[in-house]
From TrEMBL, chain B:
Pfam families: Amidohydro_3. PANTHER family: COLLAPSIN RESPONSE MEDIATOR PROTEIN, HYDRANTOINASE/DIHYDROPYRIMIDINASE FAMILY MEMBER. Transmembrane segments: none annotated. Residues 43-493 form the Amidohydrolase domain. InterPro entries: Amidohydro_3 (IPR013108), Formylmethanofuran_DH_asu (IPR012027), Metal-dep_hydrolase_composite (IPR011059), Metal_Hydrolase (IPR032466), Metallo-dep_Hydrolases_sf (IPR050378). One of its GO terms (molecular function) is hydrolase activity, acting on carbon-nitrogen (but not peptide) bonds. This is Formylmethanofuran dehydrogenase subunit A. CDD domains: FMDH_A.
Length: 432, 559
């Protein structure tokens, strides 16, 4: 296909169109990227801060290291194989990679009897636990772009995580069904010091902002849900928000034709945040008794949505599953990276982080292998470091978007000597 | 390398062979003529007394794509009861209602199945469907692209665009999603639900586009036919599961105005409103209509008792059914102004009046429909039951006394509403071979599968003839996939990866892409080029390759 073979000559200068950006879960694929003769890349169309930073990276090294000393790739792979071969219970974590990388992770995990978890495991599980407990009614980005009339954002401004969300999906000039998109309404519920400027409509209409500490969102959402369910609420204020304001919000939600309730699980960083998400799901469920409403769990950064999908189809379970027995085993609380390390349950860790040089392995005293972005800003030197090609820059790939319904191709934009994660993991697997 | 399968009793309905003792020769994955003098036989299998059929083909099974993976992700409790350990040949995984891809492939092969077709491949989600199918070992795969509630098509219909333009769009979708068929689910209804319509009957208007499901069916069945796609339009009708929907189904058969059409999981669309509980069997009327309409085929979507999960593109009906979920949870999605999905776990109980009658209705349809070339054996995996229950279902069809024993254990009110135990028919091995092999291959358009003629792909299953048909079909002696022995005594002995079957109808790409490009750029959140799944993506990793089955090309053109 044309779109996959476009970048055949990867060394000469030129502009690549329709580039997919994996720097966040929106996976915008409308970027143009200029490639210079030295391989440097520059976003020249539809840049955002995250995208610009992602593409401007130039590898500082392509060389693997053993105990901090330069080593050739084969030696590093051999040493990694030795470590994994000798481990009783290895942990493959981080998992910042694309689908081809995840397939290799699953193969190696089974072969080595490893447990897997993602660097976003903690926030992803807040959503997955709700999905596994009650299910949910949710929607996808193109539906939002063309249908939403009331956007309720819970506990986040969205743009801190997903820069172009409003530009692409809320204030788009045209929509499929003739809606005047500039008349869309935005409400921020919860959070402090949010950047709500993106919620201002093109006509200058300001969003409704109902601030509170995110940790108090469970109470606030509980009251909003109670109002929608027709229960009597005696309190006049909750977490600093007037109950009358929540009653108004409830009315607006009921009057809306297609409301969307968006959240990002990583912003809901308090104990048992899944219960707050459960309340959002309950709110959406109640609204659908009479009108249409959908949840929008925004995620997908560092490949978390692709990772849990791949793990689910291959093993039956999302991450936080283990091959330490002869069959896949799922323990969403027990198989958390932090907990396994704190309890001394694992004796080797492979940390995979291919997209973001700032996502580092947790501190540990066990044998550790780091495979990932060549410019990882490592604070402590691991036993083995193997730099690999970044999907979407130095190797093609496939990534899942935030809404899980869309998987998009990532392009290779420049030539490289770096191996892919799949190359490295397959070689380790073959040696076991 | 020449393989000889000696002296088996062959059932090959594509060549009218009904239990004839024959030798079969296989070279390089294909069935070949008896070799000329001197060519040595590398390996011989003595199949005297054994039953030989082509590998079975499941023409409707939800094995890959968003909703299946949602079912997997949301049901850890379903997997915990059925862990599968790794063996010398197979990797571990999990089974039951929403098995892992690896376990899916192994278990199909272990039952003698060599192909399965995902019937609800959302074009916008096609890449994921193919990724999952590529990770499904041994069996061949393929998908039916699901349209009919997608905004682009409904716009074309509302604007009364020329049939040729619609044909171009349908062909473009098939190429883009690497599909072998076209499916429509609750025609127009998935879209209508997004506009807060809660039901859409065949002649009801969609609130926004002002078109009816009948118009959708007419345009799509005609498009598929005119493009020369072998598989007729695959229809999941309106009003799934609604008492009284038998009328909708009967009218749907007429709505296509003589164009070929396949009505899927017809059991779920064969309900009347008679009796005290206003729920009754419409099987007799459905079977009679199927017998009469030669342009119509159907698969049953039999339910069997136990825990399963329903996964469907029909978010309108799944939303309505979510209150019956067991365990009580459901995922309902609107997807990309293109489609939707609903995943609702379900437990069918033989003492539940409705479930018991659903069971009987399915079997009545099987037994009252005369032509086995137009009725197909499915449970709509996993919606009616997991595919692993096929051997049990075959026994129900082939063994009247077993069937009647089961019937007498049902909810008594349901028994009173069914004629099942008065039906004498027992399916023959030849008829089973039609439904699960020759007929299925012909229906899907697999020209070199489902039969044992010279030139066919050597997908061959060998059983020990056993009066207990469940035991017989659960554990074949041998299964060959493309000439390689992959299963012996019901266990995988070699893992291969199968192929992905597609069709590529001719069409005017430049014409339709001019409109589509503009449409994508204005309304969508992805580039049009990224909507297309390439053959390279499917072959990446060596797990599959695209096979293009013959498509006869346009049969006629409109003015």
């Amino acid at each position: 296909m044309e779109h996959l073979s476009q970048a055949i000559d990867l060394s000469s200068p030129g502009t690549i169109e329709a580039v997919t950006c994996p720097a966040c879960g929106l996976l915008c694929d409308d970027l143009s990227v200029e490639r210079h003769a030295d391989g440097a890349l520059k976003v020249v169309k539809n840049p955002c801060a995250k995208g610009v930073k992602f593409f401007q990276y130039i590898p500082k090294t392509t060389q693997a290291r053993i105990n901090g000393k330069p080593a050739d790739l084969q030696a590093a792979i051999a040493k990694a194989t030795e470590i994994l071969g000798g481990a009783k219970h290895p942990l493959l974590s981080g998992l910042g990679t694309d689908i081809q990388g995840m397939r290799a992770v699953m193969n190696l995990a089974e072969k080595s009897g490893a447990t897997i978890d993602h660097m976003n495991g903690k926030s992803s599980m807040r959503n997955l636990l709700v999905m596994q407990n009650s299910g949910w009614q949710i929607t996808t980005l193109t539906e939002v772009k063309n249908r939403v009339d009331l956007l309720l954002v819970v506990g986040t401004d969205i743009v801190s995580y997903f820069s172009r969300f409003f530009e692409r999906n809320i204030w788009n000039p045209e929509s499929m069904f003739g809606q005047d998109t500039s008349s869309r309404e935005v409400v921020y519920l919860g959070g402090r010091d949010l950047d709500t400027s993106h919620g201002v409509s093109p006509k200058g209409v300001k969003p409704t902002v109902l601030p509170c500490d995110v940790a108090q969102l469970p109470e606030v959402l509980g009251v909003l849900r109670a109002i929608l369910l027709g229960k009597k609420v005696i309190a006049t204020e909750v977490a600093g928000i007037q109950v009358a304001d929540l009653a108004k919000l409830a009315e607006r939600l009921q009057a809306a034709k297609y409301s969307v309730v968006a959240w990002t699980a990583s912003a809901l960083d308090f104990p048992h945040a899944e219960l707050a998400i459960q309340n959002i799901v309950g709110i959406v469920d109640k609204l659908n008794a009479t009108t249409r409403s959908s949840g929008l769990p925004l995620s997908g950064s560092e490949g978390d949505v692709g990772a849990y999908n791949t793990s689910s189809w291959i093993s039956g379970y999302p991450f936080r599953m283990s091959y330490r027995n002869d069959y896949p085993d799922y323990e969403p609380h027990h198989y958390a990276t932090d907990r396994l390390l704190a309890e001394g349950q694992v004796d080797a860790i492979v940390w995979i982080s291919s997209f973001n040089p700032a996502r580092l392995p947790p501190a540990s005293k066990i044998a550790n292998i780091v495979i990932g972005h060549p410019n990882l800003e490592l604070e402590t030197e691991p036993d083995i470091f193997i730099p690999v090609a970044v999907p979407g820059i130095e190797t093609k790939g496939i990534q899942f978007r935030s809404d899980s319904s869309v998987a998009l191709p990532l392009k290779q934009l420049r030539a490289t000597d770096l191996p892919t994660l799949g190359d490295v993991l397959s070689a380790i697997e073959a040696g076991l | 390398m020449l393989i000889k399968l000696t002296g088996g009793t062959v059932y090959d309905p594509a060549h009218q062979i009904d239990g004839k003792v024959m030798d079969i020769y296989v070279r390089d994955g294909r069935i070949v003529e008896r070799p000329r003098d001197g060519e040595p036989v590398s390996q011989e299998y003595d199949l005297r007394g054994k039953v030989v059929m082509a590998g079975a083909i499941d023409m409707h099974t939800h094995i890959g794509g968003g909703k299946v993976n949602i079912a997997r992700t949301m049901l850890p409790e379903d997997h915990r009861i059925d862990p599968t350990v790794h063996t010398e040949f197979c990797r571990s995984g999990c089974g039951h209602a929403a098995p892992s891809t690896l376990t899916t492939g192994y278990r199909y092969a272990e039952m003698g199945y060599t192909a399965g077709f995902e019937p609800a491949l959302l074009p916008v989600n096609a890449r994921q469907s193919h990724l999952e199918m590529c990770d499904t070992p041994i069996i061949d795969k393929g998908g039916y692209a699901m349209i009919g509630s997608d905004d682009f098509f409904l716009r074309m219909l509302a604007a009364k665009q020329d049939q040729n333009a619609i044909n171009d769009y349908v062909a473009w979708i098939m190429h883009a999603s690497q599909a072998i068929g076209i499916k429509v689910v609750n025609p127009g209804g998935i879209s209508a639900f997004k506009f807060n319509q809660r039901a859409l009957d065949l002649d009801e208007q969609h609130a926004h586009y002002q078109i009816s499901p009948r118009e959708v069916l007419k345009a799509l069945s005609r498009a598929v036919h005119e493009l020369g796609v072998p598989h007729p339009l695959h229809v999941h009708g309106n009003n799934l599961g609604v008492p009284g929907n038998v009328e909708t189904t009967l009218k749907t058969m007429g709505a296509v105005e003589g164009f070929p059409v396949h009505l899927t999981h017809i059991q779920f669309h064969s309900y009347g409103t008679e009796g005290d509980r206003k729920f009754s069997s419409g099987a007799a009327a459905i079977a009679e209509a199927l017998n009469k309409h030669k342009n119509v085929s159907a698969d049953v979507g039999q339910i069997l008792f136990g825990q399963t999960v329903t996964a469907s593109g029909d978010n309108m009906r799944q939303f309505a059914n979510a209150s019956h979920a067991s365990p009580k949870k459901s995922v309902i999605m609107d997807i990309e102004c293109d489609a939707g999905c609903g995943v609702v776990p379900f437990k069918y109980k033989d003492q539940n009046f409705v479930n018991a009658l659903q069971w009987a209705i399915g079997l009545e349809i099987f037994l009252l429909t005369e032509d086995p070339w137009r009725i197909f054996l499915t449970t709509d995996h996993p919606n009616g039951a997991p595919f692993t229950s096929y051997p049990h279902l075959i026994k129900l069809l082939m063994d009247k006394s077993f069937r009647n024993d089961m019937f007498t254990k049902l909810n008594l009110d349901a028994q009173a509403m069914s004629t099942l135990n008065s039906i004498e028919r027992e399916y023959s091995l030849y008829e089973i071979a039609i439904m699960t092999r020759a007929g299925a291959a012909r229906l899907v358009g697999l020209h070199d599968r489902g039969h044992l003629g010279v030139g066919a792909g050597a997908d061959i299953t060998v059983y020990t003839d056993n009066p207990d048909r469940e035991a017989m079909f659960a554990k074949p002696d041998y299964v060959f996939k493309d000439g390689e022995l992959v299963v012996r005594n019901g266990e995988v002995v070699k893992v291969t990866w199968g192929s992905t079957h597609t069709v590529k109808p001719e069409f005017d790409r430049a014409g339709i892409e001019k409109d589509l490009k503009k449409y994508f750029d204005t309304y969508h959140t992805m580039n049009m080029e990224h909507f297309k799944v390439s053959a390279d993506e499917i072959s990446e990793g060596g797990h599959s390759r695209v096979i293009v089955q013959e498509c006869k090309g346009r049969r006629e053109k409109t003015a």
